[in-house]
Amino acid sequence: xPEISLFKEVSLHHYLILxxxxxxxxxxxxxxxxxxxxxxxxxELMLNAVNLTFVAFSYYLNHLDxxxxxxFIMTIAAAEVAVGLAIAIxxxxxxxxxxxxxxERLKG
Amino acid sequence: xxxxxxxxxxxxxLVFSLAVIVVANPIFSALFLVxxxxxxxxxxxxxxxxxxxxxxxxVYAGAVMVLFLMVLMLFDLKKEIDIFSSGQRLGGLKIASxxxxxxxxxxxxxxxxxxxxxxxxxxxDAQGQMEQTKTLxxxxxxxxxxxxxxxxxxxxxxxxxVVALSRIKGGTHARD
Lengths: 108, 176
Fold this sequence. Notes:
Number of helices of chain A: 4
Strand content of chain B: under 5%
CATH architecture of chain A: Orthogonal Bundle
Helix content of chain A: over 70%
Largest interface: A-B, 78 and 82 residues
CATH topology of chain A: Helix Hairpins
Largest sheet of chain B: none
Distance between the termini of chain A: 58 Å
Strand content of chain A: under 5%
CATH class of chain A: Mainly Alpha
CATH superfamily of the domain at 1-77 in chain B: NADH-ubiquinone/plastoquinone oxidoreductase chain 6, subunit NuoJ
Oligomer: heterodimer
């Protein structure tokens, strides 16, 4: 693939690379941040990267099943955020902070 | 034209996503996440997934982010001193492992791209867009009907579970 065509036209390549980069940013956020809420946001970033992959494949393979899967992923993500935030509120009620370190010594 | 739009949107998404994990204040993180999701919705428009783009705007940039912001405002936020969870050495290790995964992903993308039978892309007119959304709904309610119903049941379970979770007393580290 010659270097010129990388900037001339957009192909499936570009979308997949962008999606991989967003996924990595989200993964770094999950591993590095302390605040539980920001960790949940990073998980959302990773899910969005996967959504982008599905939509790009759906467009370039001319197949609509990918978009259905994106629909499902969005629903699951919303549910996951609801549960995660409920847990965060429960943690905040006990410790007055939402650090991930409080999860190290959970019991009962 | 389409290429230029892609690169602008890609730059927006990358910068905003990076800002989400770098900014110290969680409220700013949430706002940057909203911007990133809106840019991603425009990218879905670019990929001619109109229904998905609209749902992304309504559900993600609307509902989910409002939920995030409300919970953040419920908390008494103080300025965070150190936002990262690990020291310099462990942090470097984590970033290196993430970089390794990125490299593997890019490498596999580069070598597997020739395997797909790519269709020639086509630009949909207004009629085509309506047809696409119609086909989407038909697939959703025929081929994926069981998954759809299971998803509804899962949402019911989640609603009950969240209510139960918010009512717990005692449990972890109960002091009184």
